[in-house]
Design a protein that fits this description.
heterodimer; A: alpha+beta; 7-stranded antiparallel beta sheet; 5-stranded antiparallel beta sheet; 18 strands; 36% helix; B: alpha+beta; 6-stranded antiparallel beta sheet; 4-stranded antiparallel beta sheet; 27% strand
Chain lengths: 476, 362
Amino acid sequence: MEQPAPKPEIVARRAEILAGLKAILPDEAVIGDAISLKPYETDGLTAYRQVPLAVVLPATEAEVVAVVKFCHLHGVRMIPRGAGTSLSGGALPLADAVVVGMMRMNEILEINYEDRYAVVQPGVTNIAITQAVEDEKFFYAPDPSSQLACMIGGNVSMNSGGAHCLKYGVTANNLLGLRLVTVEGEVLEIGGKHMDAAGYDWLGLITGSEGQLGIVTEVTVRILRSPEGQRAMLAGFASNEVAGACVDAIISSGIIPVALEFMDKPAIHACEAFAHAGYPLEAEAMLIIEVEGSEAEQTDMLGRIREICEGFGPISMVVSESAEQSAAIWKGRKGAFGAIGRISPDYLCMDGTIPTSQLPAVLRRMSAMSEEYGLKVANIFHAGDGNLHPLIMFDANDPVSFHKAEAFGADILKLCVEVGGCLTGEHGVGIEKRDLMTAQFSPSELDQMRGIKSAFDPGWLLNPSKVFPLSEHAPA
Amino acid sequence: MRAAAGPLLVQGNGTKAGMLRPVQAAETLSTARLSGITLYAPNELVMSAKAGTPLKEVEAALAEKGQQMIGEPPHIHGEGQTIGGIFATNFSGPRRVTGGAMRDHILGVRAVNGSGEAQNFGGRVLKNVTGLDVAKFLTGSFGTLAVMTEVTFKVLPKAEATGTIVIRGLDPALGVKCMAAGLGSPYSVSGAAYVPERKAVFLRIEEFAASVKYRTEKLAGELARFGAAEILDTAASLALWADIRDCRPLAAGAATWRVTVAPSAAPAILRLAESAGLAGFLDWGGGLIWLSGEATEAAHQAVTGAARAHGGVWWLMSGPDSLRAAVDVVPKEAPALAAISARVKERFDPKGIFNPGKMRAA
């Protein structure tokens, strides 16, 4: 992966920059020694590594402002970072950049049940929001698989989704406001505690902007009352086509399950070995379907879905009888990445979205590519919204295998675009997909987005080398 | 656009020309003739339509397949409303409170920028984080950044049945508390309105018929402390919520405003507005306050003062040109944001020809 050349004048002034940062932050909040910098060299996309110039860990918005003003004054690039769980390399450092780690800003500032919002700092983990409100039977809806670790600031930057966004939407649909530190160190208050923007939708623009526009220092999220209960069921099918047709039939019937997940045979086997959830090993494809409501409503809804599934000759069908059984069904799905990790030391997790009707054709093409490249692929798919997660297994110790995996992944994403979809549904472009952006966007469209970036960050100091193709990078 | 010598009034059929500020432009660029549904895949919950497609045509096509627009756009601007106008103004109705606004369901936008370049942002899939979310940013931008030529959006099945709980005899403070209890219940309330004139709260549930029965009864029981509930059936509910969507509880006035705020602040805003001679009603659980009254600067200052005091924002939705040209029809942006805003606008519309002054005076 090509990276922009470090600015020699910045690297040469490293000691001076570290001293400058230490003058504005407590000593322990500035990391400069090689061993302590090492953990920051990569994120969830471990194939790429680069030790940064320094890491700072501000504990307050005022400290973020001071750091940003200092870096802006000295022309130092900045890489905002939450928990470092990005699967697209969104937090990958540059050799001449300061990583601004937000994990020490981890307080929940306010919870308001009457108006149904919570105000949190960016370093609060996704799950911690739900944990803070679950005694009152509320929850925060977006639930990325990394929710135990990933932080809300990162969720905002990547517009994270999750398994339940078919019903509840993604991060952008669950925010009311945020505070953003601009590259000049100005604090912008975007939105608030109210719905809708009177004026431009800055909240919508900043959400998912991958750290290109500023550093988020506070987030106001909507919290929702939990349903009375939820229950999952499994259905195994003889082919991907049949399972895909069943998904179509469920949606067409007017039922929108709260989650509708699809796994192909390699994924079923890997996850069953890990979770012992009772997945049907003889099936070519499997659906996990979850519904919400009272006991009677769950039974009614699952009955309707069962009836639809039966029309597609399922190999097996299991309706969960208890919360424990539902949890086991989800354990396999939520642990899917770990499960694949047990059978292959390394994998690339792709994230394209396709129109759901294209599913069988795309899976067929992917399986042909898998043979051509000689690399195995397992598929996990948010079937309701068409978000595909092919996991390409390879051996990182073998450079040929790695390059093949990268090429295979790029081919899959181009295929997603070709059939009417997009490069990334929820992981972000990051560094991983920036060079593929030309497959989805025209030069004019890319320029329009770059223009927005430049309007916020004229010198391109914020998270550069991400999102936009490198060859086109040039501060305005 | 490349040939445009001066400012352009960008619109569909111009039914919403009375919102925000009047535009001074010698020429009009209308998308009214860009009409027609270009994609509808009910099984994928997605529709695309050219910007000038009449809203009624979109809604009829959806209804034929048992589906609907999630954001429930109001029908207060007559027959001519276009789908482009609905998205350009991010104009949502009662279901916005839990179902999301038009901006939450926009998936893709084709548009022409001020340099005359045809561009396509977003797409036709339900989940998409590829690049900056320009489609969302253009939604609600009132034609000031680019001219939308086609929109693609998410749709959902219409519920099998609709039920409404009506609780009467509540003052605004209790009314908002009652709505908060309903929206904070596990029964997926999809509409929550309060009409001061009738001292009544209306809470809507849209589900399968058996669930509507179960949920309205459960909810009525849980809200018994606010008073006895009347439960409306589907037919009565559909008529009621069409009225609320279309602002029929709002008294006629020479000017109308919308204010959005944290719901618990709504009673105070209503009180301040009433003391200035305005009338209003609450939607979105109190998060949206519709107000009407005299078209005077004093009335406007009463609205904006009340909104500002409680961390809310406002839109001047209708009024004479003289008032609309004279006041802040939406809140000003703070200086640091205004500077960025000007640069972003310049990147879309370098000559400044699209709807100049529509949102804020130059």
